[in-house]
Design goal:
Strand content: 15-25%
Bound molecules: 2-acetamido-2-deoxy-beta-D-glucopyranose
CATH topology of the domain at 401-665: Rossmann fold
CATH superfamily of the domain at 401-665: Glycoside hydrolase family 3 C-terminal domain
Largest sheet: 6 strands, mixed
Shape: globular
Pathway: Glycan metabolism; cellulose degradation
Number of helices: 22
GO biological process, one term: cellulose catabolic process
Structural class: alpha/beta
Mean pLDDT: 96
Radius of gyration: 27 Å
Catalytic activity: Hydrolysis of terminal, non-reducing beta-D-glucosyl residues with release of beta-D-glucose
Keywords: Carbohydrate metabolism, Glycoprotein, Glycosidase, Hydrolase, Polysaccharide degradation, Signal
Low-confidence stretches: 1-31
Family: Belongs to the glycosyl hydrolase 3 family.
Distance between the termini: 51 Å
Length: 871
C-alpha cells in the first residue's frame, strides 16, 4: 500500500497555483507518489424512469423478479474461454427457456463467421464525415450479427481514441477528435441496435496503447511487470477528451460498455469505482451493463461493488476453470459481502438491454455459427472437446452490404494531393506497382487474425477482424476498369522487382500507381517487431524507397496508402513527379472497387480524421515501449487535451496535412456566415435524489440448495453458479475465504439508501445533464461549387473557447453536402452548451467560461475562411 497518494483530480482542482494543467502535471511527475483514483460508492442502480429505457425496465423488472440467485449469477458470469460457440457466452436459464447469451467481436464484421462481410475500419468510416453512411455501416454490421444469433456486438470503439498515432488499435476506433468519434459512436450504436442487437462501447477508458496492457503478455516479451499499465488522466482531460464520445454513446442508448485492460490512475478499469460508478453510471446515467474485457477482471466482490456487471469470458484467466464470480458471486451474496441489490442490478441491466433492442430473453433465435471451427460439426464446448454436434449452419448474412462497404471505403478515401492527374479518364497506359495492390499468396484470410502484412492491406490484425468472403484487390479492380476503357494495363505486385518495375515505368505515356501500406493491430500478435503498436510511422516493406524510386523516373506517379493511421510522407510528398497522393485507410472487402471509384472520379472522397505530422516527434505523444521489471508502468497523459491537431496548433510543430483536410475534383468558396443565438436560458444543475436500491425477488439462503443439481452434468472447466460443498470456504477454493466486507470493501460500498443526484448528471437522461445538449447557437454559411464537377463538400465548424488553456480551435459540428457545379448550398451547424463548456474540477460540472468565444466555418482545421463572434 502507498502511504501517501495524491488523486490527480484533487491536484487538478488546485491547479490555480499553476499556469496550466500541463505544468501542474509536470509538477506531479517530479513527485515520488503515484496517481490514484478516488473511491466512489455505492454503485448506482438502474433508474426506472430513464429516458428511452422505461419500457425495457418494466419488462426486465418483471422478468428478473422470477429469477433465483443462481440464475441471476449465470447472467453475469461467462462460462469460460471457448466454453460455447461465441467469443463470450454467459450461463443459461433452462427453467425459463433462456439460452446462453452470445457476445461476439465485432467492429468490422462478425469475427470467425463464415458468409459474413468485412466492412471498413471505424477510422475509414470516420473519414467519410457522413453521418448517414456511418449509420448504415453500423446497421449492416448489426444485421449480420443478428443473422448469426449473436446478442451483443462488441463494438464500436472510442478507446483508443488515438492519443498516440502509433497506437495499434486506433483503426478500430474513429478519430483522435472527440466530436468526430462521438458522432461515429452515436451513429454506429444506433445502427447496430436498430438491427436488434446490443452494441458495446469499448474500451472504457484510457486504453491508448497495446504495450503493457496485460501482465502475462508483457512477461512473454521479457518485461516482468507487476501490474498492467496505468493511464494517468486528470479530471479535466478525462471529461473534455476521453469521456466525451462515451457520453454520446450513452446518450444514443448503448446497451453495454466494456471496461478495458489498463488501469486508470492505478486502479484497474474493471474495478475502478471512479470511472464505472461515478463517471459512467452516475454522471452519464448509463443504464446498460458493464462487461469486462477478456481477462480484465482482477477481483470478485470488489469489482461487483465498483460497477462491473458481467465478467468475460468468465474464468479468472483463460481455462482455469475458476472464476472471481460464478460460485464466488453466489457465495458473496449469501454471506452478505455483495448486497442482493447489486446482483439484481447486474441482472436487470443485462435483461433490460436485451428488451431495449427488441430481444425477448425467452425467445432468442439459435446461435447458428461457431467461433472455433468452420466445420458443420464440432465441439460445442471447444475448450475441452466436449459436446460433438452440429455447430455451424453456414448462414449467409451478407445481404446487400457490399454496396455500403464499397461506398464507405470510397467516400472515406482521402485525396491528399492532386496536381491534375486525377481523375483518370481512359488513360492510355496504367502501371500498378507494389505488393499492396495484390493478393496475399496465402489467401485473404491466410494469416491467423490477419497477423501479417502480405498483399493488399484490407484489414489490420487482432480481435477486431473478420474473415473475408472475398477481397477485391486494387490490381483486379483497376485491371477490370482498364479493360473496359481499352487501357493498356500491367502490374508488378512486389516492392522488390526493381528492374521489371523500372522497365515499365520508364515507358512513355505511363500513369504509375504505387501502392504501399503500414499495418498495426492488437497486442497479442507481433508482426515484424510491431507488438500491436507500430514501432515507427514509416511505410512498411521499403514502401518509401519504392515511391522514391518510381517517382525519380516517372513524371506521373500516383501514390495510394493503406494504413491504420498517419505515415510520414515528408521525404517525398512534394516531389513534382508525384502528381497525386491518396489515403485509402483500411477499406474492407471492396478495397479495389472503392479505390477505382475515387481514382476515376465516380465517387467523391473524404477528409482526414487525423493529422499527418512531418516527424514522429511532431505529435508530442508516443508509445511507452519499455518498462522496468518489478514495476507497474505509469503513463502520464500530461499533454492534457492537446493531442493531434490541438497539439500541433499549440506547439506549432511541423505538419504536412492537417486534421479535416482533403481535396475533391472541384473547388468550393465559403461566404456569408450567420450566427443566431437561441434563448436556451441558464444552465440548471441537477438536484434531487435517486430511489433507494430496489431488489427483485428473494434470495434462498440455504447453501445446500446451491449444490450442483442432479440434472446438470458439469462440463469440465466450465463456470457455473453452483457450489461443490455446503462448506462455503471449501466451495470458494479461496484460502482467504471468510474476510468480512468491512475488512476489504470501502465505506458505502453496500449502502442501499437513496443517493443525491450529481449536478452534472441528467435527471433520468442518459448522456448527462440534459441542458448540456441545449442548442445555444445556430450557424449557417453559404458554400458555392466553383469548379466544373459535382462533389461532396465537408464543411466543418470549429469553436475557440478563448481561455489560456483552451485549444486554438476545436471541431464541434460538420456535414457532408453534395453540391453541383455553379450551385450554392447552405451549411447549417449547431453549437450546444456542452460545445462551449469546460469541465470545472472544483464545481464538478460543465461551465461556460467568460472568455470571448468565436466560431469558425471552413474546409479543415487550418482552412477556416469564415469567423464570427459568439456573443
Ligand atoms: C447456468 O448455466 C449453465 C450452463 O448453461 C446451466 O447448465 C445451469 O443449469 C444454469 N444454472 C441455472 C441455475 O439455471
Ligand atoms: C526482466 O525480466 C525478464 C523475465 O521476465 C528477463 O528476461 C529480463 O531480462 C528482465 N529485464 C531486465 C532489464 O532486467
Ligand atoms: C474464487 O475467487 C478466488 C479469488 O478471489 C479464486 O482464487 C478461487 O479459485 C475462486 N473460486 C472458484 C470456485 O472459482
Ligand atoms: C464471502 O464470499 C466471498 C466470495 O467467495 C469471499 O471472498 C469472502 O471472504 C466471504 N466472506 C465471508 C465473511 O464469508
Ligand atoms: C505519349 O507519349 C509520346 C512521347 O512522349 C507523346 O508524344 C504523346 O503525346 C503521348 N500521348 C499521350 C496520349 O499521352
Ligand atoms: C518501420 O517498421 C516497418 C514494419 O516493421 C518496417 O518494415 C520498416 O523498415 C520500419 N522503418 C524503419 C525506417 O525502420
Ligand atoms: C522526375 O522525373 C524525371 C523523368 O521524367 C526525372 O528526370 C526527374 O529527375 C524526376 N524528378 C524528381 C524530383 O524526382
Ligand atoms: C528499457 O529499460 C531498461 C531498464 O530500465 C534499460 O536497461 C533498457 O536499456 C531500456 N531499453 C530501451 C530500448 O530503452
Ligand atoms: C518476475 O518478478 C517477480 C517479482 O516481482 C519474481 O518473483 C519472478 O520470479 C519474476 N519472473 C521472472 C520470469 O523473472
Ligand atoms: C465441482 O464439481 C464438479 C463435479 O464434480 C466438477 O466437475 C467441477 O470441476 C467442480 N468445480 C469446482 C469449481 O470445483
Amino acid at each position: 500500500m502507498r502511504s501517501t497518494s495524491i488523486a490527480l483530480a484533487v491536484l487538478a482542482s488546485s491547479s490555480s497555483a499553476y499556469a496550466s494543467p500541463i505544468e501542474a502535471l509536470n509538477e506531479l511527475h517530479s513527485r515520488d507518489t503515484l496517481a490514484s483514483s478516488d473511491p466512489y460508492y455505492p454503485s448506482p442502480w438502474m433508474d426506472p424512469q430513464a429516458n428511452g429505457w422505461e419500457d425495457a425496465y418494466a419488462k426486465a423488472k418483471a422478468f428478473v423478479a422470477q429469477l433465483t440467485l443462481a440464475e441471476k449469477v449465470n447472467l453475469t458470469t461467462g462460462v469460460g474461454w471457448e466454453g460455447e460457440q461465441c467469443v463470450g457466452n454467459v450461463g443459461s436459464i433452462p427453467r425459463l427457456g433462456v439460452r446462453t447469451l452470445c457476445m461476439q467481436d465485432a467492429p468490422v464484421g462478425v469475427r470467425f463467421g463464415d458468409y459474413v462481410s468485412v466492412f471498413t475500419s471505424g477510422q475509414t468510416a470516420a473519414a467519410t464525415w457522413d453521418r448517414g453512411l456511418i449509420y448504415r455501416r453500423g446497421r449492416g454490421i448489426g444485421e449480420e450479427h443478428k443473422g448469426k444469433g449473436i446478442n451483443v456486438v462488441l463494438g464500436p470503439v472510442a478507446g483508443p481514441l488515438g492519443r498516440i498515432p502509433e497506437g495499434g488499435r486506433n483503426w478500430e476506433g474513429f478519430s483522435p477528435d472527440p466530436v468526430l468519434t462521438g458522432v461515429g459512436m452515436a451513429q454506429t450504436v444506433t445502427g447496430i441496435q436498430d438491427a436488434g442487437v446490443v452494441a458495446c462501447a469499448k474500451h472504457f477508458i484510457g486504453n491508448e496503447q497495446e504495450h503493457f496492457r496485460q501482465v502475462g503478455e508483457s512477461q512473454g516479451r521479457g518485461f516482468n511487470i507487476t501490474g498492467t499499465l496505468s493511464s494517468n488522466i486528470d479530471d479535466k482531460t478525462m471529461h473534455e477528451l476521453y469521456l466525451w464520445p462515451f457520453a454520446d454513446a450513452v446518450r444514443a442508448g448503448v446497451g453495454s460498455v466494456m471496461c478495458s485492460y489498463n488501469q486508470i490512475n492505478n486502479s484497474h478499469a474493471c474495478q475502478n469505482s471512479k470511472i464505472l460508478n461515478n463517471l459512467l453510471k452516475d454522471e452519464l446515467g448509463f443504464q446498460g451493463f458493464v462487461m469486462s474485457d477478456w481477462q480484465a477482471q482482477h477481483s470478485g466482490a470488489s469489482s461487483a461493488v465498483a460497477g462491473l456487471d458481467m465478467t468475460m469470458p468468465g474464468d479468472t484467466e483463460f481455462n482455469t476453470g475458476l472464476s472471481y464470480w460464478g460460485t464466488n458471486l453466489t457465495l458473496a451474496v449469501l454471506n452478505g459481502t455483495v448486497p442482493q441489490y447489486r446482483v439484481d442490478d447486474m441482472a436487470i441491466r443485462i435483461i433490460a438491454s436485451l428488451y431495449k433492442t427488441g430481444q425477448n430473453p425467452t425467445d432468442l433465435p439459435p446461435i447458428n455459427f461457431d467461433s472455433w471451427t468452420k466445420n458443420t460439426y464440432g465441439y460445442l464446448h471447444a475448450a475441452v472437446n466436449s459436446g460433438y454436434q452440429q455447430v455451424n449452419w453456414h448462414v449467409d448474412v451478407r445481404a446487400n452490404h457490399a454496396s455500403i462497404i464499397r461506398e464507405t471505403a470510397a467516400k472515406g478515401t482521402v485525396l491528399l494531393k492532386n496536381t491534375g492527374s486525377l481523375p483518370l479518364n481512359k488513360p492510355k497506359f496504367v502501371a500498378v506497382i507494389g505488393e499492396d495492390a495484390g493478393p496475399n499468396p496465402a489467401g485473404p484470410n491466410g494469416c491467423d487474425n490477419r497477423g501479417c502484412d502480405q498483399g493488399t492491406l484490407g484489414m489490420a490484425w487482432g480481435s477486431g477482424t473478420a474473415d473475408f468472403p472475398y477481397l477485391v484487390t486494387p490490381d483486379s479492380a483497376l485491371q477490370a476498369q482498364a479493360l473496359k476503357d481499352n487501357t493498356r494495363y500491367e502490374s508488378v505486385l512486389s516492392n522488390y522487382q526493381w528492374s521489371a518495375t523500372q522497365g515499365l515505368i520508364s515507358q512513355a505515356n505511363v500513369t504509375a500507381i504505387v501502392f504501399a501500406n503500414a499495418d498495426s493491430g492488437e497486442g497479442f500478435i507481433d508482426v515484424d517487431g510491431n507488438a500491436g503498436d507500430r514501432k515507427n510511422l514509416t511505410l512498411w516493406k521499403n514502401g518509401d524507397d519504392l515511391i522514391k524510386n518510381v517517382s525519380s523516373i516517372c513524371p506521373n506517379t500516383i501514390v495510394v496508402i493503406h494504413s491504420t493511421g498517419p505515415v510520414l510522407v515528408t521525404d517525398w510528398y512534394n516531389n513534382p513527379n508525384i502528381t497525386a497522393i491518396l489515403w485509402a485507410g483500411i477499406p474492407g472487402q471492396e478495397s479495389g472497387n472503392s479505390i477505382t471509384d475515387v481514382l476515376y472520379g465516380k465517387t467523391s472522397p473524404g477528409r482526414s480524421p487525423f493529422t499527418w505530422g512531418a516527424t514522429r516527434e511532431s505529435y508530442g505523444t508516443d508509445i511507452m515501449y519499455n518498462a522496468t521489471n518489478g514495476t507497474t508502468p505509469q503513463q502520464d497523459f500530461s499533454e492534457g487535451v492537446f493531442i493531434d491537431y490541438r497539439y500541433f496548433d499549440k506547439a506549432n510543430t511541423p505538419l504536412i496535412y492537417e486534421f479535416g483536410y482533403g481535396l475533391t475534383y472541384t473547388t468550393f468558396e465559403y461566404s456569408n456566415i450567420q450566427v443566431q443565438k437561441t434563448n436556451a436560458g441558464a444552465y440548471k444543475p441537477t438536484t434531487g435524489q435517486t430511489i433507494a436500491a430496489p431488489t427483485f425477488g428473494t434470495v434462498d439462503t440455504d447453501l445446500s440448495h446451491y449444490l450442483f443439481p442432479a440434472d446438470v452434468s458439469p462440463v469440465w472447466q466450465y463456470i457455473y453458479p453452483f457450489v461443490n460443498s455446503t462448506d462455503p470456504a471449501v466451495a470458494s477454493k479461496d484460502p482467504s475465504y471468510g474476510q468480512s466486507p468491512a475488512q476489504f470493501l470501502p465505506p458505502k460500498a453496500t449502502d442501499a439508501t437513496a443517493q443525491p443526484l450529481l449536478r452534472s448528471a441528467g435527471k433520468s437522461n442518459p448522456g448527462g445533464n440534459r441542458q448540456l445538449y441545449d442548442v445555444l447557437y445556430h450557424v449557417t454559411a453559404d458554400i458555392k461549387n466553383t469548379g466544373s464537377v459535382t462533389a461532396d463538400e465537408v464543411p466543418q465548424l470549429y469553436v475557440s473557447l478563448g481561455g489560456p488553456d483552451d485549444p486554438k480551435v476545436q471541431l464541434r459540428d460538420f456535414d457532408r453536402i453534395r453540391i453541383d457545379p455553379g450551385k450554392t448550398a447552405t451549411f447549417r451547424g449547431t453549437i450546444t452548451r456542452r460545445d462551449l463548456s469546460n469541465w470545472d474540477v472544483v464545481q464538478q460540472d460543465w461551465v461556460v467560461s467568460s472568455y470571448p468565444k468565436k466560431v469558425y466555418v471552413g474546409q479543415s482545421s487550418r482552412k477556416l475562411d469564415l469567423v464570427a463572434d459568439l456573443n
